[in-house]
Design brief:
- It contains 13 helices and 17 strands.
- The strands form five sheets. Strands 10-11-7-12-6-13-14-17 form an eight-stranded mixed beta sheet, sandwiched between helices.
- The longest helix has 25 residues.
- The chain is globular, with a radius of gyration of 25 Å.
């Protein structure tokens, strides 16, 4: 038998090892998600494994379409699979299912928000720091990455979003006292500025302004959204309280400029969210620096490092610094969004990076909230 087996091996060849789904997943268990600190197999990201001879195809389903390490993970998976014995062809499809926090009582009793997975507050505590510009670019960057996004301008007294975006699909009625918001290139947008004449002052007492925002959250058919971005007004008053009582805000993004004068009011905004038990996802610093034409030097006009210091002070993520760019101003005046019109500009890349960082923090938060992470603890320090 030994001689026969030896002759058979020489003629037929040594049989190749049988490739199974278990082998595939075992090999991929070394690929770690850098944010969730677990491997992609344990996290349930690896799906739809198909083996056809020496060809392997599978799906890696991430927690957000805006995952900034998506291409890195794809490359790792491809390299590992191609190195397996018996594999000659690999197809990896990257998909995403945006995670949501546990359903709150507010969401359960508010039909308008039932299909909104995450509500993100963009706040600063004061005006003039580029908060609305940041909210708009975050919304469009997330949408560009493949997410379903809505943008609510909650600044009733000084709405600027209607100027900053172009409506490409009008609003329409969805029944008595219910509207479907208009769209700007696929992003659902609503603002008090859409219901007043340009230059017309909005004169409302605090509770009346709060009621306007409440209508936007309860009488608007937002539909299925991965993210609803709310551009908060300056301050810590009636409108902010109304939003917290009406909508289950998932987390807050804090916008500041580098100098201490800005940080004074921003700290009040963080304190407000702490009181309202809304996690702060991180800090975005606008007007971080300016690079003039003809030189490569970064001019730190409003000092430097304020956003990073604030993030360290409260133990939250620094989501990115946005440079000063006159084209952002021009785009805001003309209704063109930087991440769409000039995607390769430094400001657009910074906004896109910040959007990815926001999505990362939400994925971590929602994974902890759902109990999906049993070896990783996320602490909010204040």
């Amino acid at each position: 038998m030994g001689l026969f087996s030896s002759i058979k091996d020489k003629v037929v060849g040594t049989p190749k090892p049988l490739l199974t789904e278990a082998h595939i997943k075992s090999a991929l268990s070394v690929v770690m998600d850098p944010d969730l600190h677990q491997d992609i197999v344990t996290l349930g990201f690896v799906r739809a494994v198909t083996i056809n001879g020496s060809s392997v195809s599978l799906e890696v389903n991430l927690t957000t379409p805006a995952c900034p390490v998506k291409e890195q993970l794809k490359s790792q998976v491809e390299d590992i699979l191609k190195a397996l014995p018996g594999v000659s062809d690999v197809t990896v499809t990257m998909t995403a299912t945006t995670r949501a926090p546990q359903v709150s009582a507010a969401a359960a009793t508010n039909p308008s928000l039932q299909h909104v997975k995450n509500i993100i507050a963009v706040a600063s505590g004061k005006g003039g720091v580029g908060k609305s510009t940041t909210a708009v670019n975050l919304a469009f960057a997330l949408a560009k990455a493949g997410s379903k996004v809505g943008l609510l301008d909650a600044d009733v007294y000084g709405p600027s979003v209607p100027r900053m975006v172009r409506i490409t699909k009008p609003a329409h009625d969805a029944g008595p006292n219910v509207i479907v918001p208009p769209e700007s290139d696929g992003v659902k947008v609503l603002s008090a500025g859409m219901f007043s004449q340009p230059g017309e002052a909005t004169i409302l007492r605090g509770p009346m302004a709060g009621n306007v925002v409440k209508q936007f959250l309860t009488q608007v058919q937002w539909g299925e959204l991965d993210y609803l971005i709310i551009d908060y007004p300056p301050g810590t008053g009636d409108i902010q309280l109304t939003i917290s009582q009406t909508a289950p805000v998932t987390g807050a993004v804090i916008v500041t400029t580098p100098q201490e004068v800005s940080l004074i009011d921003v700290r009040k905004a963080i304190s407000m969210f702490k009181t309202l038990k809304v996690p702060v996802l991180g800090v975005i610093e606008t007007m971080s620096y300016f690079v003039c034409d003809g030189c490569d030097k970064k001019h730190e006009i409003f000092r430097s490092g304020g956003g990073e210091r604030l993030a360290r002070e409260y133990g939250v993520a620094f989501l990115g610094g946005i440079p000063l760019d006159p084209r952002v101003v021009i785009g805001g005046d003309e209704g063109t969004v930087q991440v769409q019109s000039l995607p390769d500009s430094p400001a657009a890349k910074a906004y896109s990076g910040a959007a990815g960082a926001v999505a990362q923090q939400l994925s971590i938060l929602n994974s902890v909230d759902s109990g999906a992470l049993n070896q990783f603890v996320l602490e909010w320090k204040h």
